[in-house]
Q: What sequence folds into this?
């Protein structure tokens, strides 16, 4: 068992598609919350194999995409300080801020490093004791425990020059905000499997209890996607609403208690600004005492006033109110070589994914 | 961002592990998965093992899918 190839079996996939056609009669909108799911649906071709009346909507689950310009501009301003070394994940480099990007700043000589893990930022802090090493932290609950663990390790080792610019987000408050806004009709949720390896099922129970929406915690291989669609369609056809786990090989009912406890130790739910969705209560990760002493927001920086590109529809796309092809900039002035908004930068941004894979617009 | 890949733990020393992912050995922190052991498959994300994978559950899922697809 390698946990990958087994879940890409073509014959089983064909059988599952037949099953979906048998059971599905109603037009439905299913939201894939996670950008990795959007990519998986496109890359596997499943999007084009489903009944036409099943519409897949890309949700707000791309951490790079939902990071507001304000945070990018702050990171840029901090990187301009001579005593700062800024570290971040590769996807953040090309995201346009109001007038610059971290990539442009790096080209102009700022000390900016791409890291794969927050632990590498810790190593950079140890190797550069004369610098304030700032980790620009983005991600959902999949990533936040890794950031919490790194922060705790730095704290325990007495490393005082590692700072965190926390722009991480919590998924469930955003889903609540989407449902409460009623701007888009969602009949069921394909829930982010890797966020749920940490959180488990319970934090998503409100979807079925309060909003009567079915939801399925889903893995990322083709058979996972097909099984999840089948499970959702089955619930919808029977007027049921449960939160089910399809990704049982990785998701336990109670998630990963060790990881959740590290997050709770370091972070407290905080109001946070999301691109497109605005300020959402309790959706951010503020630093608890005594860790707030390494909050990079406390470091002075000359930040320019933020402004969004007037034509960019990333905000609407993240709410599934619009699709990338509806944006006048899509494929015209905005493309992966020259992204106007973050959804065209991130490898799991909806615009980038549509640009790369969509051949048969539905 | 939430991409996470399965790999097999081949060695653990002081909370750091070597994990084989598709033939390549990577380093990962086991801080979030203290109970994982050598030989287990874990999901790796941002340099951390974030969850162990359950082979029994995987086999049960595949058996169910095979039945749903009406395959022997």
A:
């Amino acid at each position: 068992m390698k946990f990958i190839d087994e879940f890409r079996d073509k014959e089983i996939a064909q059988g599952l598609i037949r099953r979906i056609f048998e059971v599905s009669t109603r037009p439905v909108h299913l939201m894939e919350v996670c950008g990795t799911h959007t990519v998986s649906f496109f890359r596997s071709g499943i999007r084009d194999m489903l009944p036409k009346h099943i519409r897949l909507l890309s949700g707000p689950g791309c951490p790079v995409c939902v990071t507001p310009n304000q945070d990018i501009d702050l990171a840029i301003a901090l990187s301009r300080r001579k005593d700062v070394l800024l570290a971040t994940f590769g996807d953040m480099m090309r995201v346009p801020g109001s007038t610059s990007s971290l990539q442009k700043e790096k080209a102009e000589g700022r000390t900016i490093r791409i890291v794969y893990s927050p632990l590498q930022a810790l190593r950079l802090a140890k190797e550069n004791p004369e610098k304030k090493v700032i980790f620009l932290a983005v991600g959902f609950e999949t990533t936040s425990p890794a950031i919490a663990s790194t922060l705790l390790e730095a704290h325990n080792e007495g490393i005082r020059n590692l700072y965190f610019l926390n722009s991480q987000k919590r998924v469930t408050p955003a889903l609540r905000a989407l449902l409460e806004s009623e701007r888009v009709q969602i009949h069921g949720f394909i829930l982010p499997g890797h966020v749920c390896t940490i959180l488990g099922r319970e934090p998503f129970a409100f979807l079925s209890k309060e909003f009567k929406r079915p939801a399925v915690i889903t893995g990322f291989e083709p058979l996972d996607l097909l099984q999840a669609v089948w499970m959702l369609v089955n619930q919808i056809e029977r007027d049921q609403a449960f939160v089910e786990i399809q990704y049982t090989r990785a998701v336990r009912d109670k998630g990963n208690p060790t990881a959740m406890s590290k997050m709770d130790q370091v972070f407290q739910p905080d109001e946070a600004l999301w691109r497109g969705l605005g300020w959402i209560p309790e959706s951010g990760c503020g630093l608890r005492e005594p860790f707030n002493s390494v909050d990079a927001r406390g470091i002075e920086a000359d930040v320019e006033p933020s402004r969004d590109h007037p034509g960019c529809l990333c905000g609407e796309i993240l709410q599934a109110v619009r699709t990338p092809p509806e944006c006048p900039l899509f494929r015209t002035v905005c493309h992966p070589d020259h992204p106007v908004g973050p959804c065209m930068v991130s490898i799991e941004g909806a615009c980038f994914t549509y640009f790369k894979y969509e051949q048969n617009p539905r | 961002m939430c991409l996470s890949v399965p790999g097999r733990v081949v060695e653990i020393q002081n909370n750091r592990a070597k994990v084989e992912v598709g033939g390549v050995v990577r380093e990962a922190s086991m801080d979030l998965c203290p109970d994982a052991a050598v030989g287990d498959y874990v999901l790796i994300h941002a340099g951390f093992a974030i969850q162990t994978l359950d082979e029994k559950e995987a086999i049960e899922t595949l058996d169910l899918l095979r039945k749903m697809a009406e395959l022997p």
Remarks:
- Chain A has a mean pLDDT of 96.
- The longest strand of chain A covers residues 278-287.
